[in-house]
Design a protein that fits this description.
D-Maltodextrin-Binding Protein, domain 2, 19% strand, alpha/beta, 10 strands, 48% helix, ten-stranded mixed sheet
Length: 331
């Protein structure tokens, strides 16, 4: 009986010790979140400077720096359709000091690029979405087509003779272009550039005939007459380009494409830090000056919890996997 009592006593002590250690770990995580950030945070943007992700990251970084009282530094790591920068973020320390500004390029790449050294939902964790914008289909002024239906007819008359630019395989501009080809039943050759700025310059210079680009970055070129807008990709006309019809209005019913942006961190980043960043991001994108800035560019804020954003990402991966199956010349 004495021995049994000692065993039970030791068991109780073990349980109590385990509970004490768990409580200490929980308190340590909470303290970690309270102290976070204690130094510079870097946001990896796996796209080139000047693109919509880069511009949004700098706006968001400035807002987070003000609210969290530490520098948020933007690091552009373009290449391989966003794979290079995403891989760097995925393999970084899960301490909250390396974040990833990502888009639907990453969700599309899950089915487009099998030779990746990371898996999005295995190696990264959702923090928060940031914003969403429509795209615009533009052509160089030398292209004889004045409307979307005329361009489709031109492409059908000359299969494989027209080109379209994108910022790389798997990027929203590439996926929008392939979806456009599939729905219109045309053969237009994809010309991937290293980043969206180079792709934009390619169509402005007439190196390629067409591009589907974010309204946020292409609208000034449309308004200056450097390119001709044929259609916008949203369900309603863009407030930035109100004279440009939607694709549905212009003769391609059901066509819709957007570019959305979000923030992720390496898997294993403490949940209290994820929650703190989510709150800070959601507060930042509701600031009146940011709302107005983005509205003037045709951009709308997106707000979700980490859990809701994770579900959104899983759904987007499935959506693009189904779309990729329809591409006749998928990579």
């Amino acid at each position: 009986m004495v021995m049994a009592g000692r065993v039970l006593g030791l068991a109780r002590l073990t349980v109590l010790a385990g509970g004490f250690l768990a409580a200490q770990a929980f308190l340590a995580l909470g303290s970690h979140a309270q102290d976070y950030p204690a130094r510079t945070v870097r946001i990896i943007v796996p796209f080139g400077a000047g693109g919509s992700a880069d511009v949004a990251a700098r706006v968001l970084g400035n807002a987070l720096q003000e609210s969290l009282k530490q520098p948020f530094v933007i690091e552009n790591r373009p290449g391989a359709g966003s794979v290079i920068g995403t891989q760097e973020a995925a393999k970084s320390a899960p301490d909250g000091y390396t974040l990833l500004m990502m888009s639907n390029a990453q969700t599309a790449n899950e089915s487009l690029v099998p030779q990746r050294k990371y898996e999005l939902m295995r190696d990264l964790v959702a923090i928060a979405p940031v914003n969403v914008a429509d795209l615009v289909i533009v052509v160089h002024p030398s292209v004889p087509a004045k409307t979307l239906t005329e361009f489709i007819a031109l492409a059908k008359a000359h299969p494989g003779k027209l080109n379209y630019a994108s910022s790389g395989q798997g990027t929203p501009y590439h996926m929008a272009g392939e979806l456009f080809k599939a729905m219109a039943g045309i053969d237009v050759v994809h010309v991937p550039y290293r980043n969206s700025g180079e792709a934009r310059n390619g169509v402005i210079a007439g190196q390629v005939q067409m591009m589907i680009d974010a309204v946020t970055t292409m609208a000034p070129n449309v308004l200056q007459g450097q390119v001709r807008a044929l259609a916008a990709s949203g369900t309603v006309r863009s407030s930035v380009l109100p004279d440009v019809p939607t694709a549905d209005e212009a003769g391609l019913p059901g066509y819709e494409a957007t570019i959305w942006l979000g923030l992720m961190a390496p898997v294993g980043t403490p949940k209290p830090i994820i929650d703190k960043l989510n709150t800070a991001v959601n507060e930042a994108i509701k600031r009146p000056e940011i709302v107005k800035l983005w509205a003037d560019q045709g951009v709308a804020p997106m707000s979700m919890s980490p859990e809701a954003f994770e579900r959104f990402l899983h759904g987007d991966i499935v959506k693009w996997a189904e779309v990729v199956k329809q591409f006749p010349d998928r990579p």
